[in-house]
């Protein structure tokens, strides 16, 4: 029987690409969305047209009742989640420290960790019972290398990174891996839609490969971590940045 992958924030961008790639590799895919029902249905339609299995499920991943209901629906339909790809973008303020308020920073921290906590708590029990699981979280290089204006996102993702390491440590003996994927600026996403052509060119030129990362390139890294081939890889932070930052 095919493994089940839940991708949060999968109506477009990295999430949609991950859903398509995983479905193409035989996973049954849950396309989670919060408000973009039509876009989520398009992703599902593309997957089913290509011979895959997918279902859209609406849930706000920062709301406990929504996450619980989504988990119950997946359990009833397909028996639970084998692979979690936590990609949902939690909104954040772009601001300097001088203009930063605690509501902006504390709000982003609380929502980022609350969402990761809720979805992880929802999927891990089934993984523990089966002795198998893949937990994959989208993060950012800003959690390690600050950039002007990105204090809320970078700080919240740094907290997420450490949360994932503790989860990886605890669950490793039970056959469950937990890893972080850290793309540089990704083309064709909500973030890049807010940038000017000049900003896009500058960001692409900064990478040794001379361009931005594509959603499919991130999705293929996610697919490796979702596969059996990654069984001895856990607790890791994996950049997808074309050589922009070499650790």
Share in helix = 40-55%
CATH arch. level architecture: 3-Layer(aba) Sandwich
Q: How many β-strands, per DSSP?
A: 7
Spans with pLDDT under 50 lasting ≥5 residues? none
**Quick one: CATH superfamily?**
NAD(P)-binding Rossmann-like Domain
Radius of gyration: 17 Å
State the helix count.
Answer: 8
Question: What is the CATH third-level topology name?
Answer: Rossmann fold
Order of helices and strands: EHEHEHEHEHEHHHE
Number of domains: 1
Global shape: globular
Question: Please, what is the average pLDDT?
Answer: 93
Derived structural class: alpha/beta
> What is the C-level CATH assignment?
Alpha Beta
- How would you characterize the largest beta sheet? 7 strands, parallel
Subcellular location: Secreted, Cell wall
Organism: Mycobacterium fragae
Keywords: Cell wall, Oxidoreductase, Secreted
Family: Belongs to the short-chain dehydrogenases/reductases (SDR) family.
Written account of the structure:
The protein contains eight helices and seven strands. A seven-stranded parallel sheet has the order 3-2-1-4-5-6-7, sandwiched between helices. It is of the alpha/beta class. Helix content is 47%, strand content 16%. It catalyses: a (3R)-hydroxyacyl-[ACP] + NADP(+) = a 3-oxoacyl-[ACP] + NADPH + H(+). GO terms for molecular function: 3-oxoacyl-[acyl-carrier-protein] reductase (NADPH) activity.
Question: Which features characterize this protein?
Answer:
8 helices, 247 residues, globular, 7 strands, alpha/beta, Rossmann fold
């Amino acid at each position: 029987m095919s493994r089940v992958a839940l991708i949060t924030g999968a109506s477009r961008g990295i999430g949609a690409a991950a859903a398509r790639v995983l479905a193409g590799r035989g996973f049954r895919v849950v396309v989670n969305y919060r408000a973009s029902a039509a876009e989520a249905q398009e992703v599902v339609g593309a997957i089913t047209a290509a011979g895959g299995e997918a279902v859209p499920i609406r849930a706000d991943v920062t709301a406990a009742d929504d996450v619980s209901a989504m988990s119950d629906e997946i359990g009833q339909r397909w028996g639970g989640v084998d692979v979690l790809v936590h990609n949902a973008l939690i909104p954040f303020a772009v601001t300097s420290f001088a203009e930063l308020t605690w509501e902006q920073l504390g709000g982003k921290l609380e929502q980022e960790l609350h969402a990761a906590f809720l979805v992880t708590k929802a999927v891990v029990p089934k993984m523990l019972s089966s002795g198998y699981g893949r937990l994959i979280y989208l993060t950012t290089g800003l959690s390690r290398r600050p950039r002007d204006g990105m204090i809320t996102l970078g700080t919240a993702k740094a907290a997420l990174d450490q949360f994932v390491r503790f989860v990886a440590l605890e669950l490793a003996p039970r056959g469950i891996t937990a890893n972080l994927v850290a793309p540089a600026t990704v083309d064709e996403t909500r973030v890049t839609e807010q940038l000017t052509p000049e900003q896009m060119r500058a960001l692409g030129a900064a990478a040794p490969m001379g361009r931005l990362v594509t959603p499919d390139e991130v999705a293929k890294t996610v697919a490796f971590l979702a596969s059996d081939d990654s069984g001895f890889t856990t607790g890791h932070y994996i950049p997808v940045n074309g050589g922009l930052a070499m650790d």
